Request: fold
Amino acid sequence: MLSESAASPTEQGHKLHSRRRLHEAAAAAASSDSFEEIAEVEGLIIDMRYASKNNFMSINLYGPFNKLYLHKIAAKKLRRAAVILKKSHPRYDLLVFDGLRPHSVQRVLWNKVKGTPQQTFVANPKTGSIHNYGFAVDLTLADNGQELDMGTPFDDFRPLAQPVLEAKFLAEGKLKAQQVANRKLLRRVMTKAGFQQLAIEWWHFDALPQEQAKKHPIFE
Ligand SMILES: [Zn+2]
Reply:
């Protein structure tokens, strides 16, 4: 979680956007009619990676915006996914890393990756990410709290993380059958609940197609 060390000179994210802005975003999400806070119900564990330093940038980007929010449509589908998972795999839980992401944070993320190979994986704030509309969720599966092996960690931007290349990597022995099976289980559960998988990140799912999600207001 965010500590006072966030103010250290190495914390560039802190310089780029203020805690006050994030406090305002947290208050706006909490009082919004469109979004709802996701509680840890049965089958659902929450670990907000961008509200900690445990993410690919090693920076706490979310600060006080440290709760999981989703658009109500997505929230309903996520809870349905947890129920579906528990039915077939009672020991497993959905472990959620990210949901609604303020547009202001998207700009910070973008500035960090612009001009690097990671740029492909971060939506340009001009058009926005589906996370900025509250319709995207990043998650994995956990067995008794332990993350299942998906072949790569969350936010690993190598091609190995891309669902569209799974068959190729499996044939080449770079992904194991069990890793692909774990991804397929996550995909099956999420798809059944009404989500769509993003082709380049095994952990990312959208509750509505892009065009539909973007008809809703973006969350600043
Ligand atoms: Zn995502």
Residues 98, 131, 136, 138, 204 surround zinc ion (CB under 6 Å). Residues 135 and 208 are 7 Å apart (CA to CA). The domain at 4-213 is CATH 3.30.1380.10 (Muramoyl-pentapeptide Carboxypeptidase; domain 2). The mean pLDDT is 91.
